[in-house]
Every structure is written in C-alpha cells, then in structure tokens.
Amino acid sequence: MNFIVFAILALLAITAVAIAKLRELWAVIMFTGIYSFLSASWMIILDAPDVAFTEAAVGAGISTVLMLSTMALTGKAEEIPRKKSLVPLFVVIVTGATLVYGTLDMPHFGSPDAPVQVYPDPSFVKRSEADMHGLPNVVTALLASYRGYDTLGETTVVLTAGIAVLLILRRNDEKDEPTQLAGNKTP
Amino acid sequence: MTFESIAGLYNYWVVIFLMMTGFYIVLARKNLIKSVIGLNIFQTSVFLLYITMGKVEHGTAPIVPPAIAEQQSHASHGVGENAHAAIEHADEAHEVVHEVAHEVALTVADHGGELAHASTEIIYSNPLPSVLMLTAIVVGIATTALALALVVRIREDYGTVDEELILELDRGE
Amino acid sequence: MIDAIFAHLPILLIVLPLMAAPCCVLVGNGRAAYLLALVVSFAAFACSVAMLGETLQHHVVRYELGNWSPPYGIEYRVDIFSGFVMAFVSGIGAIVLVYAPLSVRDEIPASKHYLFYATYLLCMTGLLGMCVTGDLFNVFVFLEISSLSSYALISLGRTRRAPLAAFQYLILGSIGATFILIGIGLLYQMTGTLNMADIAARVPHEHGPRTVLVAFAFLTVGLCVKMAVFPLHTWLPNAYTYAPSVVTCFIAATATKVSVYAFVRLIFGIITPGFAFDVLPLDTELMLFSLVGIFIASIAAIYQNNVKRLLAYSSVAQIGYMLLGISMATPTGLSAGIVHMFNHALIKGGLFMVAGCFALRLGSVQLSDWKGAGRTMPLTAIAWAIGGLALIGVPMTAGFISKWLLLTSAFETGRWPIAVLMLVSSLLAVVYVWKVVETLFFSEPSEAAAGATEAPLRMLIPTYLLIGATLLFGVWTPYSAGIARQAAIVLLGGTP
C-alpha cells in the first residue's frame, strides 16, 4: 500500500510541476485532467470514495470539457515567453513556509486521537446510525441531514453560476432572441 | 525534528507543495485560461488537505456494511414502534405503560450491546471532511465555469486571452 | 401565526431572496422580475429589522437548521452585531432597488434585466447568509454565493473593460476564498468542530498554537482580499469603476462591510481578542496597514479624473478607518469601527447614487464631462456636496460621529499620534471632495452638462433618502452609535 501512496504522491507532484512549466494550452488541460484523476485515486486510499467519484467526474470530466470548449472558442493561444518576475515565486515560498510552520503542531497523519477523530462524541458515524435508521453511507447521510443546509447553499452556487454564465454570454445586440444558450455560441 | 514527526507530517508537506504549485500558476501566468487552471489545481489540492485530515489509521471508508446497517435499522424501527405503542396506551393504563417501557428498555439494551460489539471491530475515517469537500468541489466547478465564460467574453472583445496584450490594448485606447 | 413567523425569522431572511431568485428567472420578464425583487427585498428588510429588535431584547437568537443541534448540525446565531449589519445591508439593498430601474434600463440591455435582478437577489442572499450563520463552513458557502453573483454583476458594465475587471476580481477573490478555506480546515483540524462558538471554546491556546496561528493568518489574508485592505485592494478600483452604476452602489455599500463583519466575528467570536492581540501583535500590524492604506488610497483618490474611481480609492481608505477602530479593541474603538461600517455604507451608497444620476444624464463619469453640471442639475450636485461633507467627517453629519468615536478611543488608549494622523488624512478627503464640488459649481459647463436636465425623481428620492440619512444619523445616534456600542460590548464579552 505504502508503495502505491508514494507513487501517487510523486506523480501528483510531477504533474503539478509539468502544468506549471508547459506552455502549450492543450497539453496543460490534459495534464489538469490527469492531476484530478490522480487526486481522486489518492482520495480512495484516504477512505473518501464519495469525494473521489465526484472529483473524477467533476474535476477530470466536466472541468476538462469546459476548458477544452473554451479553448475551442478562444483559439489555442500559446503562452508568450517572457522574462519571469521573481515576485510570485517569493510570495509562494513565503506562503508555503508559513503553512509548513503551521503543520508543526498538527496531529500526525492518521492519528486516532486527533481532535477531528475524538470530537464530537458520539462520532458522526454513531450519531447517524441512530438518526438515519441505518443508512449505510454515512457521507450521504450527513450531506442530506446535519449539513443539508450547506448542500442547499451548494445548489444555490450552481444556480448562481448558471445564471451568471447566461448573463455574461448572452449577446447584447440580439434582443429578440431570448433563448440563446451559452453552448450555442460561435466565436 | 524527529523521524517520527517527519513520518507523521510528510503527507501534509506534499499537499502544501501541490497547493503552492497551483498558487504559483495563478500568480505567474499571463494567459487567462492558464490562471483558471492554476486556480483549479490550487483548489483541488485544498480538497486533498481536508481529506488527509479525516483519515484515521487502520480506518475504512465511512460506509457501514449492509449487514450491520440492517440490524441497526431493525433495532431502531422496533424501538420506534414500541414507543408509539407506549404513547397510545398511555391514557388507558399505567401498568401497561410500565410493561411496554420495560420491554423497550430491554430491546435497546440488547441491540445496543450488539452494536457496541460491531463497532469495536470497524474503525471508520471521519466522514465530515468528505461532506465538506463534496460541497467545495461543486463550488470550485461553478467558479471555473464562470471564469471561463468571462474568458470567452474577454476574447470576443479584445481578440486575445493574454493579460499583458490586453492591458497594452487598453493603454493604447 | 405571528409567533411561528417570528420563530423562523433567521431562516426566512435568507430563504425569501433565495427562493425569489429562481422565480425571477422563471418569469423571464424584466418588469415582473423587478417588482418581485423589490417586494422581496423590502420583506427581507422588514425581517431583519424585526430580527434586530429580537436581538436587542434577548442579545442572542439561535436557530438550529433542521433541528439538528450543533456541533452536528448548522446553527444560526444572531447577536446585536449581526442584526445591525443585516438590517443596514438589506435596507440599502432595498433602497438601491428602488433607485435601480432607470439606470439599469440605460446601462444594461433589456434582454438581461430579469437575470440581472435574479443575480442581485442572490448576491443579497449570500451577504445576509454570511451575517446570520454561526457555522464557519457555512460562511464559506455563502461567501461564494455572494462573490460569484458579484463577479457576474460587475461584468455587465458597458465597456469591454468590465468583464476584464470582473475576471481580475474573480481570480483575486477566489485566491482569497481558497485561503479562507485553508484557514477553516486548519481550525477544524485543531478543534474537530465547525461551529464558531464551539471553536472558540475548544481552540487550544497553549498546546498547538502554531497551527492556530497559521489558520488565523490565512483567514485574515483571505478576508483582507475581500475587504480590499491595502495592499490587497487592487481588484477594487477597476471593479467599482467599470461595473454598472447600480451594481457599484450596492456592492460598495454592502459587500466590503460584510467582509469586515466576518473579520470582526473571527477576531472576537472565534479566536478571541486575548489570542489575537496578546499572543499575536495583530493590533499594531493592523493599525500600521490601516494608516498606510488610508494615506496612500486618499492620495491616489486625489489624482483620479474618473469620479467612480475616485470614490473607489476613497472606499479603500475608509476601510482603513474601520480596521483602525477594530484594532483598538476597546468598547469605544470597536463601536467606532462598527458604526463607521453603517455610516460609510450610507455615505458611499449615496455618493455612488449621485454618480449614477450624473452618468444617466451626462453619459459619463469623467470629471471633465461633469464641468458646470451644478447649474443644470442643482439637486443632484447638492446631494454630492452633502455626501462629501459626511465623507470628510464635518460635524452634524454621520461621518463626524464615527471619527469622533475613533478620536475618543485613540485618546483613551493614549495613542495621540494616531489621532493627529487621522485629522491629517481627513484633510486629504477635503481635497478630493472639493475637487469634484469645484468642477460641478465653479467651472464653465461642458457640452454635455449645458444641455442636461435634472435627474429623474425616481432616482433622486432614493438618493436623498441615503444622503438625508447621513444628516439624520449625524445628530440622532441611538440607533446607530447606540446599537454599535451595545454590539461592541457584547462582542467584548460584557452585558449591555
């Protein structure tokens, strides 16, 4: 198992760096899909199959499709090589160092007495066994009950994005054509 | 810095490296689509951070095996029915209530024992980070969609998706 | 019936605009959508005033969503502070809608009107949701609702720079939101809970402060982007300048204020001032950034020729005053910060409305086109003058109340250099306000201004409502400074 984890972590790091280095947009989008897929695999190992499925479907699927269609609409403009500024690198290194400093007091990976695992007591799994009359998937149970309101918020975010995309992409000049969807547009 | 803490924390460090790579892409890239991609990588890595937190040693995914779940479901239904019965008869006779209540208590104790036995065997990872990240993934894709719509619009207006060229065009106006 | 409504006020406040938004889309007609949005926003305003009344009586109103008790479920928790912020956010949201139709008709193509009002309602939902919730992750979700809708609203501006401004805001805003998400994650890891009150009780002060420290730093940086604190304010001038007038009025008056609200909640409700100001020297850093921000942004405002951009830089400076008050962490200082949120919302909302009136009649917000407009549009120009006086902080205006409280607090804590710097910075405000007044009243009319007529009453009345309110709350303070003081005392752990 450990070997697989190391391999996935290394691949994730390599893919991320490749995305940062590559100039050709098409390749970058493909690598982004791969990155999502690798994350999803690691999530499976980390006992989060629900998130893994969603990440594979949304991150590797929908988002790649969206990016490819945007690229189709905007052209495969490659990045223009320029002299690189050192400021972003500096900001990123400072931020990263801050985060690493923050990990020093963290409970170790997988530790059973981390606050996350011991609080609240009884745990979500036990609570939901009693409350949900034995719904097997606890994540689903939580999503629809205790954190159901977040799920409503999430749906609202999707609604907002939908309306926003219509608002942004609808043509200004064709006022008499009310149903021009984003997907039908040609550049 | 002991070996133990390195072994316990390296996962987080890898995740931090990934997050920062994404962050770097957002900050350093001038191509608008590439900035959106950087944002994607940044956010996906934050999902990993949360999921890493929820994992517990020797744990398994928070899905209760159907057999145990079924047992549990029977137990709670049984309790529910008996409780209803208790309420219905409450007005009629106190003795009956006592009897029923005793029965209920027994049932609960029985099943509680079974359950306790079952859950000592299985350790579940914390489901809450997964729940939060399901929400965050959807928020992330919504942001991506909106950003890409804006990119299409900008490209229509300026004819390019390169930020510096766009700024030059604006200056020349 | 009434009791049942009162019991569900906190959720009603959110659900009303939330449900009305898809309805607006479904009607698909600009006029109907507008009427629906107008009615709903006034209903939300009524709810939040009732809510504020409740909190003044009971101090804290709690509402468990779906009856799941915290820390398992999500809890709404409204105290005087959140009640106050919600009341003025929804109030200004409603007044801006009264003002909106003519300006919207002028600046946004008719086929998009119903979508515009739906997005406006969603933005309001997000902002109110951030105020009402007692759950940290829920704050993130509602922050995203308000952010996504404001990106879309900003992109509707007439010039091609508007979508670009929206995109730049989206990138910076999403970085901010992701920082907030990281911060929430680290706090969750150290406490095992997302409920704010629960985190405050469980956050480890001795063991493991490094992680908490970093969590706090990330939340602060994330919120600073949203608040547009100098030097993270770069998205704001473009966004405010190129957005449609109505959108600028609404966002300038409410969005940054709600982020300030979240920041105050973070310091006083989650991390506790003891940790933020004693363990961390946050107060001195915050003060430094606020003062530098006030000066640089005020000076930048002086050099602007676009009035909306001038007001935008002034907004960056005013956020500095709010943070200055908050960083003093005394009842007077904190109430100065809180009341300035309210006063500045009125002033900036009013001034951007004036800019919208001129934009409608003159077709431009460039100072050169505004020349001499005071002669042809006297009422609008006088509104500017009064709002400008309030912005400077002249006695008898709302701006004076906040600055007076800030000065008092600076003297109370023996920080007299800050008091001096504040007075100097007010002089800078005099310069940029006067620059516009001079153009309006004392120069030869430009071509556009000579032929202009007074702004329509439907826009002038809401404008004067806000501008008049700045005068009203300059002399009559029980419902502004009074409530702010109670809110500050509750935040600092006392009983009013």
From TrEMBL, chain A:
Keywords: Cell membrane, Membrane, Transmembrane, Transmembrane helix, Transport. Pfam families: MbhD, MbhE. Signal peptide: none annotated. Residues 10-74 form the MrpA C-terminal/MbhD domain. It is found in: Cell membrane. GO terms for cellular component: plasma membrane. It is a multi-pass membrane protein. The chain crosses the membrane at residues 28-46, 53-73, 85-104. Coiled coil: none annotated. It comes from the Bacteria. Residues 123-175 form the MrpA C-terminal/MbhE domain. PANTHER family: NA(+)/H(+) ANTIPORTER SUBUNIT, NA(+)_H(+) ANTIPORTER SUBUNIT A. This is Monovalent cation/H+ antiporter subunit B. It comes from Rhodopirellula sallentina SM41.
From TrEMBL, chain B:
GO terms for cellular component: plasma membrane. The keyword tRNA-binding does not apply. This is NADH-ubiquinone oxidoreductase chain 4L. The keyword Transmembrane helix applies. The lineage of its organism: Bacteria, Pseudomonadati, Planctomycetota, Planctomycetia, Pirellulales. It is a multi-pass membrane protein. Signal peptide: none annotated. Its main location: membrane.
Automatic annotation (TrEMBL), chain C:
The keyword S-adenosyl-L-methionine does not apply. One of its GO terms (cellular component) is plasma membrane. GO terms for molecular function: NADH dehydrogenase (ubiquinone) activity. GO terms for biological process: ATP synthesis coupled electron transport. Residues 134-428 form the NADH:quinone oxidoreductase/Mrp antiporter transmembrane domain. The chain crosses the membrane at residues 6-27, 34-53, 80-102, 114-130, 136-157, 169-191, 211-232, 286-304, 310-329, 341-362, 382-406, 418-437, 457-476. Pfam families: Proton_antipo_M. Keywords: Cell membrane, Membrane, Transmembrane, Transmembrane helix. It is found in: Cell membrane; Membrane. It is a multi-pass membrane protein. Belongs to the CPA3 antiporters (TC 2.A.63) subunit D family. This is Monovalent cation/H+ antiporter subunit D. It comes from Rhodopirellula sallentina SM41.
